[in-house]
Design a protein that fits this description.
three-stranded mixed beta sheet, D-Maltodextrin-Binding Protein, domain 2, single chain
Amino acid sequence: MTLQVRSGGWVVSAFLVVLSLFTVAASAQDRITIVGSGSNLPRPLYDAWVSAFNRRNPKAQVQYLPLGTAVSIKQISSGSGDFGGGEVPLTGDILAGSHVKLMDVPVGLVAVVPIYNLPNLGAELRFSGEALANIYLGSVRNWDDPEIARLNPGVKLPSLAIQVVHRSEGKGANYIFSDFLSKESTAFRQRIGKSASPKWVLGASAMRNEDMAEQVASTAGAIGYVELNYAAGGVSVGRVQNAAGRFVKASQESVASACAEVARSGMASLQASLTNAPGGDSYPLSSFTYIYLPRNMSDKNRARVLDDFVDFILGEGQTIARDKNYAALPSSVLQKARAAVHKATSPQ
């Protein structure tokens, strides 16, 4: 698994924004501001969490900058900012290359959904992992291909070229999507594999979830993938075949089911993959979204604010998640996450 980020100006500008916010640690009223950069995927969720937390804690504020998973890992690993966030678990090679002792803890659940633009189709398309893999490998190039037709009996598919759109490198959506496709397709696993920065063989690139949705909505015949809560305005959302063979629509319930099934099967680690989870009701492109935390912070005041913020996320924040159309973590996962994060944020 590889993590890569562009060296373009947007990353440099974002880094400077982080530094400028990071240095403003206190106002005239001794307000402590902690800053994190993270994935764009759960941005609406973090916006709600930050807004609620900040309203109740005028002297302890949080800033969340949606710069992308790989950028977040790069920054928190170098000691920039107070926390990070993304959908890539912190594996041994990432931790070994970090200048800071880090830990990842799941704080929510997200779902990646295939979106497409086929005007006047009059039906909700069904996709298998194999079919999606073949579309992104370029072996299925038209919407009326027999592989798509077999999955959608009775649907009059247009004789129209498929316009592939994928996310740019370093994104959590890439990691979830490629994780699922690698499980479903040997050819995809061998040629592209699981990564936040897949080496796509074709297609146009989109930076953010919003950009992806806009590109697909403006291009007849386009297909892409976004987090469920970004799938609106001119795009259709497909059902995806799960491990039990059912074509499931992404929802709070089907995402929660995927996590609950993995937890029931004896989840050995909080880094467990939720893609292609067992169970008839499980949505197969579900995932944890993680917060990346320094194990020890030398500034006890900043550590206290971070601890309070994460406690809030893993408490009332789960109710906020449900209100914002995100699935909440199951109680068994919450218990493990709370115990782990308390240890991670306790200053030595």
